[in-house]
Amino acid sequence: MARIFITGSTDGLGRAAAQALIQESHQVVLHARSPGRAAALDDLAPRSAGVVIGDLSSATGTRNVAKQVNALGRMDAVIHNAGVYSTKGRSPTPEGHPTIIAVNALAPYVLTALMQRPRRLVYLSSGMHRDGSGSLRDIDWSERRWNSSQAYSDSKLYLTALAFAVARRWPDVLSNAVDPGWVATKMGGASAPDDFDEGYLTQTWLAVSEDPAATVSGRYWHHRRPLPPAREVEDPVFQDQLSARLAELTGVSLF
Q1: Is 68 left (phi over 0), alpha (psi -120 to 50) or beta?
Q2: How far is CA 254 from the centre of its chain?
Q3: Alpha-carbon span 193 to 24, nearest angstrom
Q4: φ/ψ of residue 221, rounded to 5
Q5: What is the DSSP letter of 98?
Q6: What residues are labeled active site?
Q7: pLDDT 10s digit of each residue in the chain, 255 long?
């Protein structure tokens, strides 16, 4: 039996992963953005190991989530599932970062740094990470003309590179990134063509399976198959430059 924390577990892939792991008798810690959103977990909460609440678009909220999870004890695995696809304009956070960058990249970085180190980390990426910009000059979109789709691709490139950086720097942790495919969620839309179950089952497999195929690190997965990621993801120089930039933006050092 494993203890797993899943961000963004009120709906979509995060909720499906939580439900599957609870059904397998694992201890799952759920996460909701707000008390209002936590109501969506009323059916799962009694069978869970707890519910933490915090807005990952806020630095204060993200730090508070890490504090709440740490108070529950060390997790065996963390699935960084929460994400934002589109906003109107930069939609600046209280700290002035674009919401897409804050939720998709800054929050997972801060949680990774502040939470007790788990045995496994799973970061929810996207095939769109391959369209991300390899330039780290304007992560905050303070100079570029806003483009939600490009910001999303950038954020997923950063997140995927973070997963590989952790795999390289923390050999005692299994750290992987997952492309769930284009699946029917609020983010993906009802007409999304990919298999929804495969979208979350890869996450749960990497989080708890003792299958030798799942107990590896530094891979980019799609439907339980490893695929080559964007070139920057496997570049140690890019990983280190990204880590330094994220530390600068968040005031939190990971390595």
Answers
A1: alpha
A2: 16
A3: 27
A4: -110, 145
A5: B
A6: 152, 156
A7: 999 999 999 999 999 999 999 999 999 999 999 999 999 999 999 999 999 999 999 999 999 999 999 999 999 999 999 999 999 999 999 999 999 999 999 999 999 999 999 999 999 999 999 999 999 999 999 999 999 999 999 999 999 999 999 999 999 999 999 999 765 455 545 555 567 777 789 999 999 999 999 999 999 999 999 999 999 999 999 999 999 999 999 999 999
Beta strands in 74-153 (DSSP E): 77-80, 120-124
d(C-alpha 58, C-alpha 230), whole Å: 29
Neighbouring CB atoms inside 10 A of 180's CB total 28
Euclidean distance between CA atoms 142 and 210, whole angstroms: 44
Residue 255's alpha-carbon distances to 50, 239, 247, in angstroms, are 29, 11, 9
Q: CA–CA separation, 255 vs 173, rounded Å? A: 14
Cβ–Cβ < 8 Å for 146, 89: yes
Closest CA to 93 of 59, 141, 136, 66: 59
